[in-house]
Hints:
Elements: E1 13-16, E2 21-26, E3 29-34, H1 48-70, E4 75-86, H2 89-92, E5 104-115, H3 119-131, H4 134-142, E6 144-152
Parallel strand pairs: 5-6
Antiparallel strand pairs: 1-2, 2-3, 4-5
Helix pairs in contact: 1-3, 1-4
Amino acid sequence: MTSVEPAHRWGVRAVAGPGRTARVLGRARGFEIEEQAGFRHDPAHASALEHLLGALAGDVVIGFLEAAARAGLEVDAAEISLQASLENALVHLGVVGERGSPALAAVEGSLYVSAAADRAALESALAAALAAAPVHATLARATRVTIELKPVR
């Protein structure tokens, strides 16, 4: 593989905070992360894994809206719901004797779209969005990512 100097680079910094938290800073914004995967039911902040899923969700929804607009489709509303599982969460938790990987096993989701367009046109916009989505493309190299279009009226 040839190394090519990128035209633009993005960067963030993470500063350790109290407990198992980090403050992430990028461009003019920042956000808090609490734990890596987060198993608690009452966290003060989203986990690193939830931020990763959130980045994918935003990447797909915004990309879909842009692709739909380029295709002349008028979208009334769009919402995505994603779920992910780890190959072996016990490895992440440090359980003695557990083997395998704490990597994502799969990401699955549904993109709900309200639009006065036929399913084929919406599917085409989703395909175009996924083809140009950097977060989706990166995660799809590492694990199975399945996003199902679900038109709603």
